[in-house]
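Researcher: Structure for this, please.
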Amino acid sequence: MIRLQKITRYYTTGFIKTFVLRNIELRLEEGEFLTIMGPSGAGKSTLLHIIGMLDTASSGEYFFYDQPVHKLSERHRTELHQQNIGFVFQSYHLIDDLTVYENLETPLLYKKIKAAERKSMVADMLDRFQIVAKKDLFPNQLSGGQQQLVAVARALIIKPRLILADEPTGNLNSKQGGEIMGLFKQLNEEGTTIIQVTHSERNAAYGNRIINLLDGWIV
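Model: Predicted structure, token format:
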């Protein structure tokens, strides 16, 4: 599904290169639940953003279902991302001035799905996540756990092949965090491929493989 070969990411300031990732080699099979761990500054989020096509590597090769992402134009990368990848962030990234319903509908608008089908897909997600009663509320009217539920529902509504979760329980209490991780486990068992970045050994245990990053290297 995913193949990374010698992925390196650095930033240049004047004549100085600051390396964030160094020679990353990674293969991910469909249906895996991979955890990326490591201390702050190890390059975890940068790696996740490169896999999610929100950032590009400085060098190296990235293949997504045999498509050479490193050779694609920005437009093609964006299309590939929108068709295949759902992102869940620590800080939810919901749109504050849109209701729960409208937040869920937004990814479908990007995919130019017709109104009747959008309505049906949003209704299905509201029902699945038991948030029908919240559909007309705005994010600031929800608890952190409820906001993250909406964020997961929004990531799932496009039926992604891959979910990328960046510290998805970082702003939640332990009960809410457990509920979100249980949901990811269920989604993975239903066939969704997941990559999560976490500091938590407890969250890592939900996955089936762990890689550790340190100073930009896989160790």
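Researcher: Any notable elements?
Model: The chain has seven helices and ten strands. The longest strand covers residues 16-28.
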